[in-house]
Amino acid sequence: MKRKESPSNSLKAYEGQPLSGSLESFDHITKELFDGTEDLSIRRFHVFGQHKAAMYSFSHMVQQSSVNEDIIKPLMHIPHHLQGRSFAPDELPDVILYEALYHGDVAREQKVDNVIKAILAGSTVILIEGVGEAIVISTRSIEKRGIEQPATEQVIRGPREGFIETLNTNLALIRYRLQSTDLRIKMREIGRRTKSKVAICYMDGIADPEILKELDRRMEPIDIDGVLDSGYLEQFIEDNKWSPFPQVQYTERPDKIVANLMEGRIAILVDGSPLALVVPTVFNQFYQTVEDYTERFMLMSAIRMARLVALMFSLVFPSLYVAIISFNPELIPTEFAVAVAGGRAGVPFPAVVEVLIMEVSMEVLREATIRLPQQVGGALSIVGVLVVGQAAVSAGFASPITVVIIALTTIGSFATPAYNAALALRLLRFPLIIMAGMFGLYGIMIGLIIIANHLLALKSFGVPYLSPLVPGNFQGMKDLLIRGPLGSLTKRPVFLNPQDSVKFRRKENDDAAGKQQDNPSPS
Amino acid sequence: MENTDSRQITLIQASAILISTIIGVGVLPLPLFAVRAADSAAPLVTIFAIGVAFLGIALLTWLGMRFPNQSIFQYGNDIIGKWLGTIGSIVVIVFFAVLTSLTAREFGEVVVTSVLKSTPVEVTVIVMLTLAAISARRSITTFAYFHTFYFPLLLVPCVLIAILSLGNAEVINLQPILLTSPNNAFMGTFTIAALFQGSFIMTVVIPAMRKPKKAMKASLFGILVSGGLYLIIVVASVSVFGAEEIKKLLWPTLELAKGASLPANVLERLDAAFLAVWVTAVFTTLLSSYFLTSVALKQVLHLKEHQVFTFILLPIVFFMAMLPQNVTHLYVIIEDIGRVGLYITMAYPGLLLLIAMLRKKRGERNA
């Protein structure tokens, strides 16, 4: 017997091989492939009391009651309308499919490898002696958690549903919000071993076909053994893997996906991952939230600005502090400068070292709070806050102003709705602090120019990352810093090159209706 | 998705490139140049200079619109022959390499003198040059994005400082408005006009414009905004300090920023903040001349990529930047080179245009 190289390879040996029709030979194949696997159940029985048959499935993946009631029962116990008739083996699949089985999702399969794949995917397969065809019945039933409110993207006003791990449920969540014939869902299989199902969703007639082609081109060469989460996929399809900034957005909110689909973006869902990917992504998506659109525009514009301020804070605040304290204390008002100097009097380190130490300990604290179980986390954060805050100051380790700065920075980075974008800014803060320590304000500007240049040159699927700011687009700017009234956002984002650009249209017969009301009809 | 990089630049982007290229470190000594030329008539001289500068850029733009698919380094060969054209291009390249190094050195001196007093000037110069070199590796579309992004950042501090210093302004300092000694004014006009030389970048921008026909509009717009800003700065500093006082200041604009302070005492002094924002202005100017130099080299040598040159140029430009012995020497060179440069950036395109018209040469129209 030849040496098995890997499961995917041993299955490859049967690629395209037709079923022989002999139960014994198929048994042999399963024995070879699933050697020693004990959850594979093989149930032998006689179809209509005459023909030898066997049923294969992974018993834990199928819904037993349905298998018993809808498959075994009608096959073993001849239904009334078939009583007294006898069938030749090659008639059997037709009869079973059309007259006996009580199941909606049934297919016929002639190839060995496809039959094995179906068993692996959780289907039930029936083989009958002397018939060169298998009947594949989708009986997969995996335990899944209920649909809950998304943990990472909570809203006060807006839908409460979040994706779960099962792909079919997620697709259903999208489909019921977007009951349109234009919603296309293309399936793919990625992962040599995991054979993960990947769904690509887009709106036909809105999404740019060029971007779709580009996505296909990037998905094609992915040859990884397993895709366990959409995050794996993101790293294969992104434009620049050396960029700290995420070029693909992820979300666990079906409503967000639907909104993005309708703007002309493409969503990618992976079976087993509650996070869907959205491409192309531009930077402004990372500080927008669902509420921006569900709540009234003036309030949310103000809040969006606050979020932007927080974003900038989290990036430059500590470095500005270092630069001003170490190089240009004359910039700040004298009274304040004196207070700062007084606070720093007992601190032995230069400002840059002090800020770096505090920032690093803050990162450690934050990481620890995320990883710890919830029961311990609370206690830790209290200790941490005390240590980093009060005690560090009394110990002469840091000045009170530094603590304020670090606190503002940390809170600022939490205000960014997208975790991955906040991470990028968190990371970039450190080189900026070092630049500030070396060259003061000049150093910060150099650092910021490098970051801005990188952002300006970055693209996500051919779409400039800072659109619609640069290259500028007036329509797009209405939804950039502020969120314009919904009525004024009449066009889909131009940078996505939507095939149908009109989003909102005032009904023309509104005017006519108004006029009719003005002129009372003669009665 | 590969061909998206050609012919993408819009009218606004072209104007933004011009504005942010022109506004640079030259703004800092600008009032000094103007006052030296004509005392209190400095604003008038500035207006003349804007006129001269516009003439120069108009010639270049006209040429560019005549050959909408080529830059001066390509149509130069068509108009006056391969040898003369190549020589012309090389002169332009050398000039812009020198201009890049002088700009870097000038700003390096500013930073070392006013903010980072214990940092050697070599460090600040090499940092700026490296930044420009890295950024100049990008395509022309991204280059346009850079400029569009930064140019609002240039307008705000200039206008802000002018407004804030209104409180200290004296109208009497601006009188007499008219010229007293036309001779000095003539030289001064050209010195100031030389500050607009970065606008030569237009020659590589036009072949990448979506509608080259709008190039003239972009040039006009670019000169108007940057010229207007120059004028505001000159008027503001002359009215605050008076002509005699400015002659004693090396960088009057920076002094203007020192004198201004924000209401409510948020920031007590603005000069360091102003200088910090000004880093972007200098960066865009450097980027343009660096980009122009490397693209020109590419076109003269008929290569496909200009990226090769960015790092080859770096040591050369840095070496040239270190040649002037001190700030005074530097400014003597800057003024001389600037005026010589006018022959290159104005007379050369003018000559080309004349010959092109006489020989009835035109570029392809199918843009």
UniProtKB/TrEMBL annotation, chain A:
It holds the Pfam family GerA. InterPro entries: Spore_Ger (IPR004995), UPF0353/GerABKA_families (IPR050768). Keywords: Membrane, Transmembrane, Transmembrane helix. Residues 503-523 are annotated as: Disordered. One of its GO terms (biological process) is spore germination. GO terms for cellular component: membrane. The chain crosses the membrane at residues 305-324, 336-357, 378-397, 403-425, 432-456. Belongs to the GerABKA family. This is Spore germination protein. It comes from Paenibacillus nanensis.
UniProtKB/TrEMBL annotation, chain B:
Belongs to the amino acid-polyamine-organocation (APC) superfamily. Spore germination protein (SGP) (TC 2.A.3.9) family. The keyword Nucleotide-binding does not apply. InterPro entries: Spore_GerAB. GO terms for cellular component: membrane. This is Spore gernimation protein. It is found in: Membrane. The keyword RNA-binding does not apply. Pfam families: Spore_permease (PF03845).
